[in-house]
Amino acid sequence: MEKVLFVCVHNSARSQMAEALMNHLCGDRFIAESAGLEPGVLNPLAVDVMAEVGIDISKNNTKSVFDFYKKGRLYSYVITVCDEASAEQCPIFPGVTKRLHWSFEDPSKFTGTYEERLEKTRAVRDKIKEKILEFCEKEG
User: Fold this and answer.
1) Cα–Cα nearest to 49, from 1, 121, 97
2) Is 136 considered catalytic here?
C-alpha cells in the first residue's frame, strides 16, 4: 500500500478531511495521514460535515508536518491542500515520488452564520471527495 500525506496550514480542516476520506474511500490501496505547517485546533465545522457522511474525526489531533519530516517518514505522495503561498513552505520529503497540489478554500476563513459556514465547508468536503475519487481511480 502506498502512503499519502495531506498537508495544509493548520491541519484543522482540509487535510483532516482529505486523510479521513482517502482512508474511507480507498483504504484498500492507500494509507493517508495529514499534518500542518502550523498545527492548530481541529475545526468543528470539519468534524460536523464529516459526521454527516458517517466519518468521525472528532478525536483526531492536529499534527506538524515538520515532526513527520524530522522522523524521516517516507511517502509515495505528498498532496498540499492549501493555497499556493502556503504550499511553497512545505518541506520536501525524501523519497517522495510525486508531489501534488490541490487548492481548496480554507474553512477557518469562512464568514456568516454557523449554517452558512457549514454549507461552505460541506462544499469543500465534497470537492475534496471528488479529487480523492479521481486520484484513487487514476493512481490506484
Assistant:
1) 121
2) no
